[in-house]
Amino acid sequence: MNRLVGLALSIVLCSLLLDGCASYQVVPEELQGRVNHALTIEQVRDRPDLHQGQIVAWGGTVRSVSRVGDAIHVEFTYLPLDPTLRPLPDPAAAKGGFIGIDAAHHITQPERLEPGALVTVLGEVWRPMQGGAPPTLRIRDLTLWDRYLKATPYPPGSPFKGSRPFVFWEGQRVAAE
Fold first, then answer.
1. Which of 3, 32, 109, 151 is most buried, by CB atoms within 10 Å?
2. Residue 129 backbone class (left: φ over 0; alpha: ψ -120 to 50; beta: rest)
3. pLDDT given for residue 97 in this prediction
4. What are the φ and ψ backbone dihedral angles of 110, each rounded to 5 degrees?
5. How far apart are CA 6 and CA 134, in angstroms?
6. Please, where are the H alpha helices in the chain?
7. For residue 40, how many other CB atoms are within 10 A of its CB?
8. Is there a contact between 84 and 116 (Cβ–Cβ < 8 Å)?
């Protein structure tokens, strides 16, 4: 009987631990399968009319945020994404910029978009650019990445003393479809 209770308790604890380890989904369920991850900013710059209407995932840092009429305009510096769709925080990797327009009020917390903030933008390639303007996206979803350090102590009995620092990135949705 004690073994059965121990086994049941172990299963419950493992399931709780695994639930806590679930990773943040940058692409929300309603956009799954609709995002063209292969479409780059360079391709859109070269042939904007060909890619109009496609949904892309681009990373970057916020340059500026403004309200124009009823819409929110955000200027971004483009940064490539890693496999988890988090922008690589390396200024040397910057490849120009793009504009995001939110006229449908998807951005729920625009005050959190401070200059320099790392973001992943899911947006629809919008009207062809005029006169060398940067590519423009209609924002469908936006993830703000917060960086934080966490010190983890070494396990008891370890030959090492103190703690080891880890850098973590936490994604938070500030826009949703």
1. 109
2. beta
3. 94
4. -65, -25
5. 61
6. 2-20, 41-46, 48-51
7. 16
8. no
- Is the model's pTM score more than 0.70? yes
Dump the DSSP string for 51-83: HTT-EEEEEEEEEEEEEETTEEEEEEEEE-B-T
| Strands 97-102 and 136-153, bridge-based pairing | parallel
Cα first-last separation, the chain: 51
Q: Which tokens sit at 140? A: 């469908």
CB burial of 121-155 (b: ≥16 within 10 Å; e: otherwise) equals: bbbbbbeebeeeebbbbbbbbbbbbeeeeeeeeee
Residue 119: Cβ within 10 Å count: 24
- The three-class DSSP label of residue 43 is helix
Per the model's pLDDT, the better-predicted residue between 146 and 41 turns out to be: 41
Number of H helices, E strands in the chain: 3, 6
